[in-house]
Amino acid sequence: MWVLKEQGAAFDHHEGPVSEAGLRVDGGEPGLQEQAFDGCEDCLTLNFPSAADGRGFSYARRARRERGEGFRIIATGNLMPDQARMAFQCGFSEIHLDDELVSRHGKEAWRRATDVAPDQLYTKSGKAPSIWDERHRHRVKIQSLTAAEAFGALQESTNAVLLDVRTTAEWQFVGRPAFERSVGIQWQTFPYGAANLSFLEEVSEAGLTQETPIFVLCRSGVRSLAAAEALKEAGYKDLTNVSDGFEGAKNASGRRGLLNGWKAANLPWNQD
Amino acid sequence: MYAYDTHDQAFVEDRAREFRDQVERRLTGQLSEEEFRPLRLQNGLYLQLHAYMLRIAIPYGELNSTQLRKLGYIADTYDKGYGHFTTRQNIQFNWPKLVDTPDILDHLASVQMHAIQTSGNCIRNVTSDPFAGVAADEFVDPRPVSELLRQWSMLHPEFAFLPRKFKFAVTGAAEDRAAMKFHDIGIWAKTDDSGHPVFDLYVGGGQGRTPRVAKPFEPAVALPDLLPLLDAMLRVYNLHGRRDNKYKARIKILVEELGLENYRDEVRAELAGMDTAPFQSAVDEYERIHAQFEAAQPVMEPGESLDLSTASASLQAWVGQNVAAHRVPGWAVVQISVKPKGGIPGDVTGTQMLALADLADAFSAGELRITHRQNVVFPYVRAGDLPGLFKGLQDIGLAEDNIGEASDIIACPGLDYCGLATARSIPVAQELSTMLRAREATDALGPISLNISGCINACGHHHAANIGILGLNKAEKENYQITLGGRSDENATVGEVLGPGFDRDQVPAAIGRVLDTYLSLRSGADERFPDTYARVGKAPFKEAVYVGA
After folding, report:
1. Domains along chain B with CATH numbers
2. Which pLDDT score, from 0 to 100, does residue B118 have?
3. What interface predicted TM-score (ipTM) does this complex get?
4. SS in 3 state form for B287-337?
5. Do residue A135 and residue B25 have CB atoms under 8 angstroms apart?
């Protein structure tokens, strides 16, 4: 019998046929059949009748949750190397394999079973950190300030940068804030609003580092928030969204630039 | 649309590498065909009648021009120069070689695509409203939650070997354009009083040999509760769903045999003990995805609608039939029919794909959608650009003005390709298309759905059609059964079998008599086919088709 363990991905040969320990669970019909097995009190053996029968994965998930860490959950029967990842991610601690099965798949295939498969999933499964947890681990909070508050903070700072993510057309026809440390990089491009795929590249080329305090500004605070989210994901740590943007929201007659925003707050601006 | 970050990119590249290894082990015999089968299926690779078929995922039907160009390249390089849009908003290629498939997956990964879980007994590609984000009747954009589900279900270790396949559809609008109630789990996104998204869940819908409309499972599920609940629903199904008979293995049968209440109790018991820690970052992730979709949406300034008074009759007809209401005035949702008169539903050539990609760049901010009715949608078209787009579509033979009409036929590949089929679907669709286009030119039939399946597995959605056609094999002869009155919208209904089937050459005449009966019995031009059928019942149709013949 061969034993593949999650711990250290150990793969070793043991004399004798596949042994079963603890409660033995068989995949019969109509339901799984459980039968007490002599010996081990803190283990469970789950027999896969065929590689296509995935009940064992759900059973193991439930058993791992109920019995906690340290409990041995063993998979036997007809598994493929390609299922070793799934087994460990669902809570199995060991896979016990028949010699014949191992020689057909090839020892090599079993030995590297967990190396070839993608081990990082989106939702946390098993021990590897999940993609979602990694994405959101450094939860940088994006601050939200009005244009007037942001201008005050920018003036007080010695290195904070105002990042204007509107389009070239908006800069040209609507105007731009008059502030010394300003950078203009489009988030979406004129005229179709397609995403600017080199946004992050251009931010870094403009000399902004992950430590630079960045105040992101657009027309009314929506695109700038999306841009700030993208910067956050790229590792920028000090981010502020200018919530009312350059032109602000529409007033009752549907016009911008009067209700709130950089222009309405009478902050300095100019036109090309 | 959603753009991959480094995690997403690494994920699809790792998966393509894993599949290359699996193909090599199959070719050397280390993996038996029985073992290889579920592995290739979970990468979209089927063995059909004549060759392998590769089905590529188009998550919730959304595609950009770069991706479509790559699909065109694959059609021309690895296939016989065409591909086929499917009812799961995917695309499939009918002639790839097994040894080439790892290379194709690498090509797909290079444009943020994959073929993961487009087949096999696992969670399949999530489908959604092809008008997502631009529909005039939308409550919630269904794409962010669809993408969240895509990520959650990718290589989910517990649910890769379910009793049978598992399909999700998500919609977020008043009208259901995603056939949500014909899915294992249907999700209807709405907003609560404070504007947060909530999700009505339906369970146990499906087609095949036991068509069922999904039953309401739980209303107004809040976002943080959604994934734990879905995990519990799937776990109960995985443990208790039948594995002794593949025709009784879908969740619809489990729900029916257990009873909805008992199934719900089992799910709640499972949920009570569940470790929800793995889902704690799901809400942050939803917000990240949501912000991405919002940011990627083109800026659409309201504009004027198009004045068609001096336009050609063909342009007027095309705009009238194929253009749907956009949420921004002066913009258009353009539906491009992949159902040319006498053509094969859903088939596009590599050349057409490349041309469509250019048109999407010129007229739709580089984005397009595939619909479950096997058509294409351009979601971001300025009203003023409609004439230019129409001209471009005429040049590539994709300007048929028949969206929503009877000739806008859904058809499965049938016995021309499929190993399960009992009869051909494609030639029937082609003959009907020719007959119906001629009728549509003279009779104002209005919207009618007509779907064809080449076997009882119902891939052509015949149960869900106003007029359904099912191809069977009766004494070694193709025989076609007609069902009437089905619909796949928010009032989903399973069609009724009209009577004994027909030989292939009798089908167009029989369908013609069904249409005559509808025209003579409808209360007015605005009474839709299924409404007339529900009002008058089967008898007059049966009499016209069988007695009047």
Report:
1. 6-110 (3.90.480.20), 127-292 (3.30.413.10), 313-395 (3.30.70.3340), 410-547 (3.30.413.10)
2. 96
3. 0.92
4. HHHHHHHHHHCCCCCCCCCCCCCCCCHHHHHHHHHHEEEECCCCEEEEEEC
5. no
